[in-house]
Design brief:
mainly beta, 157 residues, 13% helix
Amino acid sequence: MQKSIIGVLLALGLLVAMPAHADSDWRVKAGMLALEDDGSAATNVGIVYAWDFVGIIGAEFEANTSLADGEYGPVDYSVLQGGAYATLTTPGPIYFKAKAGLVYNDVEIGSGGDSSVGEAIGVGLGVFGFEFEYTRSTVDLGGTDLDVDYLSASFGF
């Protein structure tokens, strides 16, 4: 019992101490999110919290929502996303980034909708505080898997 308590306390201590030693930042994000074969993309905005743990290895957590609906066939759609990613980032003021993780896509399309959790991958380029990124995931919409593409720009603060 004592070993379990000590183990839990050590794990909590690491979780609290790790961000203190990691380089972290908040970013605001905006871009165009498109469902596969849609007529016009949705405009999404969101926020990202990024941690760089050791050198090039890090993590990102983000949430995005549609500011303006897209069109899928004759109906409008909007997408709410939440994601957690592992990242690899090159050092320097101009850098490249690759990320992979899980994303929750909640799609409202016409009078219906669906949500699912799936894998996501992305690549990005950072230039002096701005970051340009492409992320691809999928959503299960009524038994059909649709690609979700998100092309975005973000700024750190």
